[in-house]
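hiii so my PI (J.) wants the whole complex modelled not just the main chain, which honestly fair. so below is everything: two entries, each one labled with what it is. i double checked the lines twice but i was tired so who knows lol
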Amino acid sequence: MSLLPAKTVTPDNLLHEVAVLRQQGYRLVTLTCLDQGTGHTVYYHFDKAYQPLHLRLEIPDGQELCSVSSLYPAAMIVENEIKDHFGVKFTGLALDFQGRLMLTEAAPKTPMNRFRRCGMELDARQPAAASPAAA
Amino acid sequence: MSQRTTIPFGPQHPVFPEPIQLRLILEDERVVEALPAIGYVHRGLEKLAEQKDFQQDVFLIERICGICSFMHAMNYCQGIEQLLGLAVPERAKYLRLIWAELHRMHSHLLFLALLADSFGFENLFMQTLRCREEILDLMEITAGNRIMLTTCCIGGVRKDITPDQLKRIGTGLDRAQASLRELGGAFAKDYTIQRRLKGIGVLTREKAHELGAVGPVAKASGLAMDLRQTGYAPYPELGFNPITETNGDAYARMMVRLRELDQSAELIRAAMGRLPDTPLSVPFKGNPTGEVAARIEQSRGELLFFIKANGSKNLERFRARTPTFANLAPLLHMLPGCELADVPVIVVSIDPCISCTER
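here's the output for the full assembly
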């Protein structure tokens, strides 16, 4: 399978690489997260004069990722979305919606994960009596 | 010292066709901070796209948005065609361009109508929607539907536009442009409209770039950024150049769309005059494999689809970043400092599409 042409970065040098791109005048288009079973892949999509540039980052389960919202404030929204959908945690988020940007309290947690059951787990804050099975 | 008040603006509000909430923190009548609360129409379409066949996804993805639907399908088809290595016939490319520009026209006309409604100009609202009906009629005549055209398919298009229909498009555009000349005068020169829009919700060129603004929001701030220049469809052959304004206020955003309406009509005319005589689509076998990031210029700006396919009939990942999602951060930057009465106009000036944003 041909992967998206991208430069591989690590959680340690992510901020440095993004800062360099910002310095060079790149615009952050968005982030894309993919569930890989034991971790996640996060793509950072950039653009400058219609030339796309992508960074690829692999992150194992349980490790937190540094937010790039200090460099690109707009990243805050998509990072919150990834937190909602995949459960990836970001440190230094400019505004943290606590996993409630897109999803309500009754929604399944991290529903976009493909390889793990946590997608169907309901939020612990929901009372058990609300479940039809419990009634 | 002024007292701070928090006002929930939405999710149900007369200027919002779709639900979104902005929590406005005010000092007297002045906004000092705005926080978004979205998720009211989040449907999980990205997840559903992984569970459907990649050919069924054309119909699903067209339904991400009820306004610029054709362009969603077009971008998805272009992404899959790239993965399959398909060369789309020239006629299909021109037909896609015609339908895409018709969609841009009806979307911009809807924006203008809703903008007129947001500052209480009811008559202008109704006249603009009447003009939009001309465009919707053209789509119905050529595709059978007013909005959900479903004419785009992987490898080309599934419907042709006949010579009689081309003539009808020409007369329809004549009528729409005549109507636009009258309406455009009102939008551009009316004293009240200028008072409500000029100097309101200013976004500088530097901030537009830093915050990742796209589409007419970026172009109104002087960024000549329009993916139609990249040649994903035959725009360069038709002499396309992006329209820009420099003031970066709500008036400039309106003017970009007003001028793009005429530009789209001329692009359609030019495409109709050059329509090549080739098949409508190419057949293909097999399933796509690989990753691609496909982009086109939708009516609200850059649309990006990330597609990952693994050779089976189901996609492994489908991701959509719609233009309104990109324009949320610029909107949150525009609001602090404005009067509460200007908030509806500023919000409408980015032409928000919440169904797109939340998918």
